[in-house]
Amino acid sequence: MTEPLLIAKSQTAELCLLPSMANRHGLIAGATGTGKTITLQTLAEAFSQIGVPVFMADVKGDLSGISRAGGGNPKVEARLTELGLAADYAAMPTLFWDVMGKKGHPLRSTVSEMGPLLLARMLDLNEVQSGVLTAAFKIADDNGWLLLDLKDLRALLQYASENASELSGEYGSISAASVGAIQRGLLQLEHEGGENLFGEPALDFNDFLQTDGGRGVINILAADTLYNSPRVYATLLLWLLSELFENLPEAGDLDKPKLVFFFDEAHLLFNDAPAALLQKIEQVVRLIRSKGVGVYFVSQNPLDIPDVILGQLGNRVQHALRAFTPRDQKAVKAAAETFRANPDVDVETAITELGVGEALVSFLDAKGTPMPVQRAMIKPPSSHVGAVSEAERQESINTSVIAGHYEKQVDRESAYEILKGRAEKVAPPESASESGDSGSGFNWGEVLLGGVGDATKSRCGRSSGQSVLEAAAKSAARSIGQEVGKQIIRGVLGSLLGGRR
């Protein structure tokens, strides 16, 4: 049996997390600056040292130090002395990931793998728009069209909009307004860097499950930039968790987890989440432990986590909370009531008095029962506290076992290429002199001045065949000028009209 993991020390006892109970999930909570990041780092190290891989997002940029040995930090040395622990500095095997591909290996999904439910959440679509997106995915599935990146999805939506009357009988109403809203959402997502998230090679989840010299590899997602788009950040992490659930086999009761997944800034996952998504989250958290995965939510306030999820988090580390407002006071009371009582600890009072690095701790015992809460100091990490230099980070990236694999992006035939080929067969491209734009094969002058294609004119003098997307693009082009307008038109209308690939 794997030895218990020392996480904290009280005045009377060592507080250890049992590896066999680690997949019963957990919560790390506390106000900003109370020590949550150090607790996360200490837990991640402890799992790594017993051969358990870890995934965590680095939203502040200060977890990269886990890849380098500690030492030379007076505060860490003072805390070790206070706890009576010997210094045992060591670096942990680390893989850096980054959706943008700058601070780690590129992390990608395909549009198909993300699926309509999570993509709708990422695009902030309403129920009707989500239904249209789901119909578009079904059209692609029925025709065998791969949806790999955003240009595939744009091409598919354009096809669905142009053929809405023929498709409505089988797939329901596909309104131009809903398609337009989805396309605008995709444009915003691309503006936020989301285009980097989709494509191939997509993430192989086996790369999250590696060990190195008997220690679990710690996978760190650079999320300091991604965090500026909270909905994208939260949806991406939920997708990762969902894919682990879908891909891993049943494991039963294990001596230790296969993987531990830390979900930092967890409140973003639940903010304004629709009921269908909350139900999916609850299902994943409830069932994923049978796959050998432990999920640890990290949040400022326990009230940020829905009760149905909070009740499944057996291992808890509660740092200080501040009771400045009625909601804060409610959070203090709620946090106190979730712990197993200890007659020696006034939990509700202690929560507001805890110092930095101090916490109320309750782990599960061998029977799966929460142990009485104790006030304790968190054990300092063995690795470096704080960020490493860019040169050190790049060295880790260049020498990793997967160096170069995800950096070589591929673009195989998918929905975009198939639909583009269809369009070219139906309407061969005009000559450069007729098109007015020899570089693109498309008449940008007509777009900018209001005349697209051969659409007939209505009584008001406008093109009756003009789509909502084209009208929006023209309006944008007229308002900000021809050159910038071209770029927006390409982003909105997609590659079918000759934009960039």
Automatic annotation (TrEMBL):
Pfam families in alphabetical order: HerA_C
Coiled-coil annotated residue ranges, if any: none
Highest taxon above the source species: Bacteria
Signal peptide (from-to): none
SUPFAM superfamilies (UniProt xref): P-loop containing nucleoside triphosphate hydrolases
Helicase HerA-like C-terminal domain: residues covered: 5-501
Protein name: DUF853 family protein
Organism: Methylomonas fluvii
